Automatic annotation (TrEMBL):
Residue ranges of domain Peptide-N-glycosidase F N-terminal in the record: 206-384
Alphabetical list of Gene3D superfamilies matching this protein: 2.60.120.230, Peptide-N-glycosidase F, N-terminal domain
Keyword Disulfide bond: yes
Keyword Disulfide bond carried by entry: yes
Protein name: Peptide-N-glycosidase
UniProt-listed InterPro entries: Cu2_ascorb_mOase-like_C (IPR014784), PHM/PNGase_F_dom_sf (IPR008977), PngaseF_C (IPR015197), PngaseF_N (IPR015196), PngaseF_N_sf (IPR043022)
Keyword terms, alphabetized: Disulfide bond
Pfam families listed in its UniProt record: N-glycanase_C, N-glycanase_N, PNGase_F-II_N
Length: 555
């Protein structure tokens, strides 16, 4: 009798152990508005004591990097994330948030049948989204394809805001747990923040160009890391750009601090155009007077500012304006209830220039006009983001003009040609017909005091072959939004700060966005672009002027 009891006990333990090791492979598909959508299926491997969330592409060897998997230790209520960054590199981290508690409103049993299983419905809210999960307890398992509702049972369907979600497509019982899915070793784990940072950065290409470089006025200043021109007010670097796919977007980001200069200054990030034999770089090396001149109606000459046969001006990627003394002067001025920002980050989409960058070695530079020995501190990075929605896919660029005198300290004078009726007139020749042509145009007004063009709205008129294509008044009313970037802005008796004042398309501490002007289809041959602005007259030693840049964008 005793032997039969022992045998029965051992058999029961064996059966219980086998059942405890039962493993299921569960496949989920995404849906929207009731219809399945084509997406990499989520795959859940689950047993009593653990489960793994992965993707079908990872299992089949068709992975698109980076790809993340989650390992949940049900028994010890611990979760781990592993990201495959490449075929040979992966990172892992303990995730303290995998078993976060959510409050669910429970609904009646048998809300609906999914596959052959009766389900229960539970509802919750996450980040203002209404969440519904249908789960089953029939298999005695606790898991979910996205960690939501895992303590309720086995989640078979997840729905967000009523119309999108994921739903089980197949449940398959396996003979054993897949040996490739194991809990990460504790010794290999990154801290959570480092893991997320590395994963995020693996999703796009980062090309650092400048790192904490000084832009200042120091005659003779040199550096091993960058090329310097115009007494230190221009820095330049040759950069290797990888091939850029047509679905990629490109962004540049400038981070700027004052390093001693207290004033708001014009800044520009530019690309040396290389579509013609002579480039702006030739003038930087050999003197600006070696470049073609543009001559205004009174005979004043401006080197290197407009396109001619055989020469192209620089392509302006970004126009930005430094605030009054950010960071360097933060401790000099204290205001009750205000905390000054420590730096300015200027970030802009420049995807229209990908054809000019892709697979090339190019010169990229940054200019800040200033007269201070300390000047400014600048970092610049280019990032390329594949697989996005590129508004400028397949377009080409032709530089036409750039009146921003980036070589101010190296022989380029202020652009005052707009004081005359003709304004700026540029002739260019097309060797073939072009479709859907646009002018990418940046404009900002400067100079003078109260009556100068910086503070007086002025209409910009753009003509193509004598026809008016656009007339608008560039003006910024939101400069007061950036007060906390301007610790040493001048203050007036009426309670305003200089940085509050509205200006001709710029504010201290901001980017000036380009305007895209439709020019239609252009035929092969010669064309003329004319920019007309009623520039204000000179007041004593103060002269108004306009910094403009323009390039053709076409298919």
């Amino acid at each position: 009798m005793l032997n039969r009891i022992v045998l029965l006990f051992l058999l029961t333990c064996f059966i219980g152990n086998v059942k405890g090791q039962e493993t299921y492979k569960i496949t989920y598909h995404a849906f929207r508005d009731g219809a399945m959508i084509k997406q990499d299926p989520i795959v859940l491997f689950v047993s009593k004591d653990k489960y793994v969330i992965t993707k079908e592409s990872i299992i089949s060897g068709q992975v698109r990097y980076p790809a993340e998997q989650i390992f949940a230790d049900i028994k010890n209520r611990k979760g781990y994330r592993t990201s495959l960054l490449s075929e040979k590199r992966s990172i892992s981290s303990y995730d303290p948030g995998i078993y976060n508690k959510l409050e669910f409103i429970q609904q009646d049993t048998g809300a609906k049948k999914i596959l052959r299983y009766n389900t229960k419905l539970a509802k919750t809210s996450i980040n203002s989204n209404a969440i519904e999960v249908w789960y089953s307890n029939a298999l005695g398992l606790n898991a979910a394809p996205n960690l939501i509702g895992q303590d309720l049972g086995l989640v078979l369907e997840y729905r967000r805001n009523g119309n999108t979600g994921i739903r089980v497509a197949a449940i398959e019982k396996l003979k054993s747990w897949p040996k490739e899915f194991v809990q990460p070793l504790e010794s290999t784990l990154l801290d959570d923040l480092s893991y997320k940072d590395q994963l995020w950065k693996s999703r796009f290409i980062q090309i650092p160009i400048f790192q904490d470089e000084q832009i200042c006025f120091q005659p003779g200043i040199q550096s091993d890391s960058v090329l310097r021109f115009a007494e230190g007010t221009v820095i330049l670097k040759k950069v290797k750009i990888p091939e850029i796919t047509s679905d990629s977007q490109a962004f540049i980001e400038v981070i700027q601090k004052s390093n001693g200069d207290a004033y708001d200054r014009t800044g520009s990030v530019f690309l040396i155009a290389d579509d013609q034999k002579q480039t702006f770089f030739d003038g930087m090396q050999n003197g600006m007077n070696s470049l073609p001149m543009y001559t205004d109606e009174k005979g004043a000459a401006y080197p290197g500012m407009v396109r001619t046969e055989g020469y192209s001006p620089v392509l302006e990627l970004m126009r930005f304006f430094t605030p009054f003394g950010i960071s360097h002067f933060n401790d000099r001025v204290k205001l009750k209830g205000k905390t000054w920002q420590d730096s300015v980050s200027y970030r802009q989409d420049i995807s229209e220039f990908t054809s000019s960058l892709s697979g090339k070695e190019v010169y990229i530079g940054t200019y800040i006009g200033n007269y201070d020995k300390g000047g400014h501190q600048v970092s610049l990075e280019l990032t390329i983001h594949p697989g996005g929605s590129n508004y400028a896919s397949g377009v080409q660029v032709m530089p036409l003009f750039n009146t921003t005198n980036v070589m101010e300290m190296g022989g380029q004078g202020y652009p005052t040609m707009f004081a005359y009726e003709k304004g700026l007139e540029v002739k260019f020749t097309l060797d073939k017909d072009l479709k859907n042509v646009r002018l990418r145009y940046i404009t900002t007004g400067h100079g003078g005091w109260g009556n100068g063009d910086e503070f007086v709205p002025k209409a910009n008129s753009i003509y193509l072959d004598g026809q008016l294509k656009m007339k608008f008044t560039p003006w910024r009313l939101d400069c007061g939004s950036y007060r906390l970037y301007n610790p040493v802005s001048g203050n007036f008796e009426n309670g305003l700060s200089s940085s509050d004042l509205s200006r001709s398309n710029w504010c201290p501490g901001t980017i000036t966005s380009p305007v895209f002007i439709d020019l239609g289809d252009l035929s092969a041959g010669e064309h003329t672009i004319r920019v007309q602005i009623p520039q204000g007259p000179k007041e004593g030693d103060s002269q108004s002027f306009w910094n403009t840049s323009g390039c053709l964008i076409y298919e």
